[in-house]
Amino acid sequence: MLKELQLSLLLVLLLVCVFFYQLNLKSGCVFLPSSKSQQDPEALLGQGHGIVFIETSERMEPTPLVSCAVESAAKIYPGQPVAFFMKGFHNTTRLPSNSTYPGFSLLSAIDNVFFFPLDMEKLFEDTPLLSWYTHINASVERNWLHVSSDASRLAIIWKFGGIYMDTDVISIRPIPEENFLAAQSSRYSSNGVFGFLPHHPFLWECMENFVEHYNSEIWGNQGPNLMTRMLRLWCKLGDFQEVSDLRCLNLSFLHPQRFYPISYQEWKRYYEVWDRDLSFNNSYALHLWNYMNKEGRAVVRGSNTLVENLCRKHCPRTYRVLIQGPEGSGTGTLGPGNK
What we know:
two-stranded antiparallel ribbon, eight-stranded mixed β-sheet, Spore Coat Polysaccharide Biosynthesis Protein SpsA, Chain A, alpha/beta
């Protein structure tokens, strides 16, 4: 009788394990490892379900806007790893107290956020970008922080798969696509958000084109211009009809409303009083065009601007700790992200 009971319990346990395994596969989620230390990017991201951010400067402390972008992604994708590759971060880096690096500490405390060193030479191994990188003189390159970021995102998503986002992109709902580019406007692609499965040939050809047509003097030549010219080689682009996406071969070209409902010419609307008639029901995330913010506009507590409301809703920890300040007495500046 006892053996039969044990056998029944074992069978039930086995069925439960099978059920959760199948649920995990269907949902596209990744069960995260229990320990965040000593994680390897390939082991963590190799299934192609990660969310990736990059910092190509030596800056270690994420600004409030960067923190909001990462936190919002972790909140929208709770079962998926959110990887932040930082050039200034090393496995041996010893961080000062929380008072010195509050943004880093805040993000480190989120279960599905992981920090990795951005070692470009290692990253570009086995890609067309290695020969370019080893022969370039970064100290004399124009727009190097942006160009190196353009290259790094291509290599990371090609190697590991997943979704890349600029550090001024606030996530508001899950992106339901695997292989996609984000339209900035009709027939023009951005590279601020894109996603692919590992080793997708589109990204390999992008890296080849990156090297073949390299010109750092032209803004965006290795970024959105690259994505746009490669998309035109792959697909015969038409105009968007209403709020519907375009599909070509095995990739999707997502409508500008998905990430760019506010165009770069109108970026200041994010810092104006929130117009409640402005709907983002067709959007997956919002790109805040922080590269345009030369004036260093800040989110101000109690201002009821659109950006303040977005931060309060989609990155509440960042809003509470970094933007409101200690005991709710301060305000924070949305400093520059990668784009």
